[in-house]
Amino acid sequence: MLEDNKSFDKVSANYVSLNPISFLRRTAKVFPNRLSIVYEDIKFSWSETFERCKKLASALKSEGLERGDVVGFIAVNTPELYEAHFGIPMAGLVLNAINYRLDAKTIAYILSHSETKILFVDTEFLATANKAIEISKMQIKVILIKDKYFQELEPSKGLDYEKFISSNPLEGFDSNPGDEWDTISINYTSGTTGNPKGVLYHYRGAYLNALGNALEWDMNVHPVYLWTLPMFHCNGWCFPWTIAAKAGTNVCLRKVEGRSIYKAIEKYKVDHMCGAPIVLNLVIEAFSDRQITLSKECKVMTAAAPPPPKTLKAMQKLGFSVTHVYGLTEVYGPCVVSTWKEDWDHLPLDDQANLKARQGIEYLVQEDINVIDVKTGESIPWDGKTIGELLLRGNITMKGYLKNIDATDEAFDNGWFHTGDLAVIHTDGYIELKDRKKDIIISGGENISSIEIENCISSHPLVSACAVVAMANEKWGEVPCAFVELQNNEILSESELTEFCRENLASYKIPKKIFYENLPKTSTGKVQKTKLRERLVEKFA
Fold first, then answer.
1. For 156-197, how does the pLDDT look when each residue is reduced to its tens digit (9 = 90+)?
2. Is 7 helix (H, G, I), strand (E, B) or coil?
3. Model's pTM, two decimal places?
4. 52, 323, 470, 478: which has the highest count of C-beta atoms within 10 A?
C-alpha cells in the first residue's frame, strides 16, 4: 500500500494558486519586445504592457482601497480596458467591466450593487456615467479615459488615465491572490427579467478558461487577435488572458464595423477573432463588396445565437474557419465547442455547415455536461430528438451571484448549473440547442423550436436575420410569429416567405405572421426577444 497521501502538505514548492496574471509575467520575460497591443498608431510591447499594468496596480493601491474592493470600467476595446484585466487583480481588487450601452438607471444599479469604489470612464460615455452616479447617490472617484480617436465636442475636465498611472510615486508590483477562489472579476447578466445579476469569477476559472480557449482553438504562439468581441462581455470570454498566455498581438477597434474589420484583417494579417453571428454577417458583407478571399486563413469563434448554416457556409467560402461555441456569463463564456472531426472534411459544404451549427461537446476544462428531462430529472437518450435542459458542471462555473443566495442555490440545484437552455443530444454525443425554456413555442400540445424556424427563414437568400417568438392564438394557445430583416433593402412578400417555409417546415411550424423590421439586439449581438414580445402586444393592443 502506498504511503498515506495525507502525510504530504501543500507547500510553496508544490502548490501555487492558479492566476492568469502569471501569463503576462511570463510573456513579458520571454518575449519582451514582441508587439502586445496595437490601436491605430498606439503600440506597446509586452514589456511595456507589463509595466503599465504594474503602474495601474500601484496607483490603485495608493488610493487606499482594500482587498476585494471593486473597480469599474465603462470603456470600448482600447488598451486601457485590456490593461485593467491585469492591473486591477494585481492590486488584489475586482474588475467590473460594464456594458457601455446600458442606460444610466441600470448602470446606477450595478455601481451600487457591486459597491464600486473607483470608476474609469471613456469620455464618450461620461454623461451617462455621471447621471448613473447621481442616481446611485454614491461617492465614486471618476478617472477619465481620453481617447484621441474620439473627438469630444468639449474637452472633459478631470483626472485622466495616463496621469493617474504615472503620478504615483510607488513602484509597480504584481501581487498574487491569497487563494485561487478569490474573486477576480464580476460580470453582470443582461437583466432581461428584472435587475441584472452579478456573476462572480474566481482566479482559478479565469486561468483555466483562458487555457481552454487556446487548446480548443489550436492556437499557436503569437496569434494576431482582432477585438470584435466586447471585453465587457464575460471579460472578453477570457481572451485578454489567453492572448497574454500565447504572446499574441491584440488589435483593438473602437467601432466594430464591416469596413474597420476588413481593414484590420488585411493590415495586421489577423488570424483569430471572436463575435456573435451579427459580426459574421458584417464580415460577409464587407468582403463580398470587394469580391476577394483571404490570403491567409482566419479562425473565427462565434457564440450567442446559433449561427444559421447559410452564414457558416458563406464564411467558409471567404477563407474563414469558424468554430462554434456555446456558453453563458455564468461559465466564463465558452464552455461547449463544436469540435471538428477529420471524417467531416470531405462532406458537402451544406452538410459541414449543419454540423458546425451544433453546439458540440464540453470544453477540455469543463468537467461535464448533461441534458435532462425537465419533468423527471433523468438524462435524455442520445437520439437527436428528445428535448431536455442543458446542465453544466466544472471549474469554469461561477462562484455564484453576488448578494443573491436564493438565485445561486436555484442555479446549482442537485450539484449542476442549470442553464435554462433546451437541447437534444445526437448519437455522436454532440448537443444541439433547440431553445430557451422561455422561448419554446407550445402550439396545440406540440413543442416547436424557434431556432429551427429561424434557421429555415435565414436560409432564404434575401433574408439577413430572423427571430421567432410565440404569438397568442385562441385555437392553438400560441403559434410562431417571425420578425425578419432583409438584405440591402430587398423586397420579399409575406406570402412568398410563407411559401418558402411551407417547402421546408412542417405545417404547424410555419409562422402565422411575419413582420419585416429591424431586430432589437444586445451589445453582444443577441436578439432581445423580450422586446419583440412587447412589440407584439403593441401591434395587437
1. 888 999 999 997 666 666 667 779 999 999 999 875 446 889
2. helix
3. 0.84
4. 52
3-state secondary structure of 342: helix
Residue 154: phi and psi, rounded to 5, are -135, 135
Note whether 47 and 32 are within 8 A (CB): yes
For strands 249-251 and 272-275, give the pairing: unpaired
| Backbone dihedral angles phi then psi of residue 23, each to the nearest 5 degrees | -65, -45
Phi/psi for 325 (5° steps) reads: -125, 165
User: In the beta sheet, which residues pair with residue 72?
Assistant: 96, 119
Q: Containing H/E element for 145?
A: strand 141-145
Amino acid occupying residue 11: V
Specify the pairing of strand 116-122 against strand 70-74: parallel
Closest alpha carbon to 116 in 104, 125, 107: 107
Which stretches does DSSP call E strand in 338-380?
361-362, 368-372
Give the gyration radius of the chain's Cα atoms: 24
pLDDT digits (tens, 9 = 90+) for 354-382: 888 888 999 999 999 999 998 899 999 99
Percent of the chain with pLDDT over 70: 93
